[in-house]
Write a structure and sequence with these properties.
By secondary structure, this protein is mainly beta. About 5% of the residues lie in helices and about 35% in strands. The protein has a 6-stranded antiparallel β-barrel. The structure holds 2-acetamido-2-deoxy-beta-D-glucopyranose (3 copies). The site of one 2-acetamido-2-deoxy-beta-D-glucopyranose has 3 residues, from loops.
Length: about 700
């Protein structure tokens, strides 16, 4: 019957679901009337109305009009009001009539949200005027569930603590410190659970120190910053119901479960406090469970957090870990430095620096390095010398080496240090901390073999081996000449050996031989390569009558390595004086007295001749020979020889050295270059030599310019 809401029919036109909607949502109020009201109701009627309002409300019925044939006990016509088949009331009669039973103005309240009305009429109506029936209004009336008496089934009050009545319903809530159980009805002491993220805190069982309520399922989560670990410290008063077994307490009904990630959860119960409980974790979950029986006095704990610790690094051989702390915690850094002379090595590779951090998992992020001794590598080689190890090994730190030169052909520059130590910067350093190695300079004018009786006996002879190691045999375009070694890349000779008809010979035509006193043997050797020829720039001997500046230098391609058979001559200081009468030595493969070309290197000892005497000799030669041009004697020349003749340098000796020996150092120095003469060894004639001391700055400059 949908007469309650006539609009629903209208609604149905557009909303097809309306039928169900109307049925499922009873209205909050409505009107009910007898058939044909306000016309008299028909006879022989039995009609029933089932009224309802939404759940949670009571239905209140108020009659606005009731006019039903009165009879005793409403025997004939009646309107019966029922609730669940239980008759609440039966009505008939009229307002203020003595007969029948009229509801008056008092509304009728159903015990529930439903009410049934039944109108019954008999088939006769004895009275002349007909009765109109009834009209009533009904509405939903809110029930105050909270004030209802406790149900009789001993399940306790509706709300165990606080009840709030609401329209059509009610809500339970709990006093402070309690929380509503899932049944939404009963309260239990609050677990005080939740997430504990402070660095420290206190947790205890609900109601502690009172015994724990029954039926608890409390969860506590301690979750602090990663890199910290939680330590639980249970107080002594600890009591959780347990079943004693042979293997200790069994937490069968009550327990406190401690769950740590990656570990088996642990159930605690019994009467002994677990005391201090390190967890090694930054999160811990505690679940406290009690069932509906038994007694647990409860527990309490204080938790603290500590920074995660990393194991102290082990000590490093030949190195140091800094800083040195008794303990290392999360985010602490360590560095490793090696002692001086040691280097950081990791995984077989050298590293510049090392730093490692203690991570939140308690592990160092890098494993420790090692300190290996450094080495300076092979010491630099010393040309014409060597290096010997004094102490240490494998060129390691603090090894000491010593440089030496190949004596007696080379010597260290005076004052040079020879000891070098492998320093922490991996270089070999001397005691002045310089890494530059010394150099070996050639020893000049000191043959290993000497001509016995030199400077006492005047005379020429075959030169014993190695007595004149500066001697050079020149072969220029087939002609033979002499020269002298003055440096490891420099040969000095007479300019006239290299300049023919005012023209410099090709350097390829100049063959330089050193190292033997046997000309034939020498000639079979590979000549030394020539880089360049440097005749003195002022040498101009157009008509073979001007031997002024008869000097020249030859630069070799490869430096000579000096040894007993090849050694340089010393050069004199600039403008050095030549003592008249001092015996010098001239050597060469030139023409012998018998006018044959010498195969063996020969030498003659000849004194320096006074300039006047030499000039006189030249003048005399000029006077005697009108046809021949006699060259001019200049200050750049000097003479050597004996007045009686027979001893002289000669053709083929040209360019060779006339040497004098320093009385103090006993070294031979290049005093002259065999230049010219009028004949060879004639009486009253002398050999003329280029005065080397006049050319020192030119020699220096030429060498400098052609390095
Ligand atoms: C644990 O708590 C007790 C007090 O209950 C206290 O005496 C003890 O020092 C605490 N231990 C630690 C390591 O904090
Ligand atoms: C060498 O002599 C020349 C010429 O007489 C002169 O110019 C030069 O200064 C002298 N050198 C030395 C070092 O005495
Ligand atoms: C020539 O050079 C040497 C070293 O190279 C030097 O000792 C000497 O003084 C120089 N002589 C002249 C005259 O420049």
């Amino acid at each position: 019957m949908d007469w309650i809401h006539p609009f629903n029919w209208l609604l149905c036109v557009s909303v097809c679901e309306c039928w169900r909607l109307a049925r499922s949502l009873p209205a909050l109020h409505g009107v009910v009337q007898s058939p044909q009201f306000p016309q008299p109701y028909p006879a022989a009627l039995s009609q029933q109305w089932d009224l309802s309002v939404p759940e949670g409300y009571q239905l209140q019925l108020s009659f606005t009009h009731l006019d039903i044939e009165p009879s005793a006990d409403c025997y004939y016509d009646s309107l019966t009001v029922l609730y669940d088949k239980k008759v609440l009331a039966g009505f008939c009669g009229q307002e203020n009539s003595a007969d029948g039973h009229h509801p008056g103005n008092r509304p009728l309240l159903s015990p529930g949200n439903r009410l049934t009305l039944v109108l019954q009429t008999d088939d006769t109506n004895p009275e002349p005027h007909q009765h109109l029936g009834f009209s009533a209004h009904y509405q939903a009336k809110d029930i105050d569930e909270c004030s209802a008496p406790d149900p009789e089934d001993s399940s306790g009050p509706l709300c165990s603590q606080i009840c709030h009545n609401t329209l059509g319903s009610y809500m339970c809530s709990c006093r402070h410190g309690y929380e509503l159980r899932p049944d939404q009805r009963t309260c239990v002491l609050s677990c005080g659970g939740g997430i504990f993220d402070e660095p420290e805190g206190t947790l205890s069982s609900p109601g502690y120190p009172d015994p724990s309520p029954h039926g608890l399922a409390c969860q506590y989560v301690i979750s602090v910053e990663p890199g910290f670990i939680v330590t639980l410290n249970f107080t002594d008063s600890f009591h959780i119901e347990h079943i004693g077994t042979q293997n200790g307490p069994s937490c069968l009904y009550h327990w406190l479960q401690v769950s740590i990630p990656d570990k088996e959860p642990q159930k605690l119960c019994g009467v002994r406090s677990p005391g201090l409980m390190p967890t090694n974790s930054y999160t811990v979950q505690l679940n406290y469970h009690t069932d509906w029986a038994g007694l647990s006095q409860g527990w309490s704990l204080h938790y603290t957090t500590q920074r995660v610790q990393c194991a102290p690094p082990s000590s490093i051989t030949n190195g140091r870990v800094t800083p040195n702390f008794p303990q290392y915690y999360y985010r602490d850094y360590i560095q490793v430095r090696c002692d001086p002379g040691y280097k950081l090595m990791m995984d077989g590779r050298e590293i510049k620096s090392y730093a490692s951090m203690c991570q939140k998992n308690g592990q160092w992020h890098l494993s420790l390095p090692e300190c290996h001794i450094i080495d300076c590598g092979e010491p630099e080689k010393l040309l014409n010398g060597g290096v010997r190890f004094i102490s240490g090994s494998q060129n390691q730190h603090l090894s000491v080496i010593q440089y030496y030169c190949n004596e007696p052909f080379y010597s260290l520059l005076g004052g040079a240090t020879v000891s070098y130590t492998c320093a922490a910067d991996r270089t070999w350093r001397d005691n002045l901390d310089t890494p530059v190695i010394p150099s070996c300079i050639p020893v000049c004018g000191q043959p290993t073999m000497s001509i016995s009786g030199f400077q006492r006996v005047m005379g020429g002879d075959k030169a014993p081996d190695k007595t004149i190691p500066w001697q050079v045999m020149l072969s220029v375009d087939g002609g033979r000449g002499g020269a002298m070694v003055i440096g490891d890349r420099w040969i000095m000779t007479a300019a006239h050996n290299l300049v023919q008809q005012d023209k410099l010979v090709l350097k390829e035509k100049v063959r330089v031989f050193v190292g033997d006193n046997d000309a034939e043997k020498l000639a079979k050797l590979t000549p030394l390569g020539v880089t360049s020829l440097h005749p003195h720039p002022e040498y101009k001997n157009t008509d073979s009558a001007n031997y002024n500046h008869d000097s020249a230098l030859i630069k070799l391609q490869q430096p000579l390595t000096f040894q007993a058979a090849i050694m340089p001559l010393c050069l004199p200081p600039e403008n050095a004086t030549y003592n008249i009468g001092q015996i010098g030595m001239v050597s060469g493969f030139g023409i012998k007295e018998d006018d044959t070309i010498a195969n063996d290197l020969r030498y003659i000892l000849l004194p320096v001749v006074k300039e006047d005497e030499c000039q006189d000799s030249v003048n005399r030669a000029k006077a005697a020979t009108s046809t021949k041009k006699i060259p001019v004697l200049t200050v750049n020349m000097f003479c050597a020889g004996v007045p009686e003749g027979g001893k002289d340098s000669c053709m083929g000796d040209s360019g060779g050295a006339y040497v004098l020996r320093d009385s103090i150092t006993k070294r031979f120095w290049a005093a002259g270059i065999v230049s010219w003469g009028v004949g060879c060894g004639q009486t009253g004639r002398y050999g003329v030599y280029t005065r080397v001391a006049k050319y020192i700055s030119w020699i220096n400059k030429t060498m400098e310019d052609n390095k």
